[in-house]
Design brief:
single chain, 194 residues, five-stranded antiparallel sheet, four-stranded antiparallel sheet, 24% helix
């Protein structure tokens, strides 16, 4: 979810050491926007479309010891408790090519809120280096043939959606390769709903 690889080390879900979980933190894109973008991603033939809910990444795939999950969840609750909702405006498409084979829907508003939230998430028990500078976006095509990437870029060039961010979610990468939300962290309350 959260990123487009099986995990940060390139291993599949079944080859992680015992007691290690692959997690990610992201802002889920609410329906109808999330479902529509997931269908679009599937229409481009992206095999990850069904395994990754539509989202804006805050923490890319990160291996954590299962025993550390309590500290991670407390960290995320503390962040959510002091944050407030902010507006996201999605407008048009973009790409990271040739650096990375990704086509995405771009943020026209809400970048600062995402950057602030991402910096807070990547602290404490989740402090880690990133492979690339943070650039909030919604992936719609990844590692596909160039002509398909071009089509995805053109198809979403006029896309527009607005929504308020209510919080963020903790996701876990399952043994079947699917990213599933485990807890939602609601701004202002810090509450985590299973």
């Amino acid at each position: 979810m959260v990123a487009e690889r099986a995990d940060a080390g390139g291993r599949g879900a079944g080859t992680r050491p015992p007691g290690v979980r692959m997690i990610g933190v992201a802002i889920p894109i609410p329906d109808p926007h999330g479902a529509l973008l997931q269908r679009k991603r599937a229409s481009f033939g992206d095999p990850l479309a069904g395994a990754i809910p539509t989202h804006i990444t805050l923490l890319p795939p990160t291996e954590v010891d299962a025993a550390a999950l309590g500290a991670v969840e407390a960290h995320l609750r503390a962040i959510a408790r002091t944050e407030r909702p902010f507006r996201i405006r999605l407008r048009g498409s973009g790409t990271f090519r040739p650096v990375s084979p990704v086509v995405f829907v771009a943020l026209a508003e809400g970048i600062g809120g995402c950057e602030r939230l991402q910096a807070r998430v990547l602290s404490g028990p989740l402090d880690r280096p990133l492979d690339y500078p943070y650039h909030p976006h919604v992936t719609i095509a990844h590692h596909l043939p160039d002509d398909v990437m071009d089509r995805a870029f053109k198809d979403l060039a006029g896309y527009a959606a607005d929504f308020d961010v209510w919080g963020f979610s903790l996701y876990v990468h399952g043994g079947d390769g699917v990213w599933r939300p485990q807890h939602d962290y609601v701004f202002g309350s810090g509450s985590a709903a299973p």
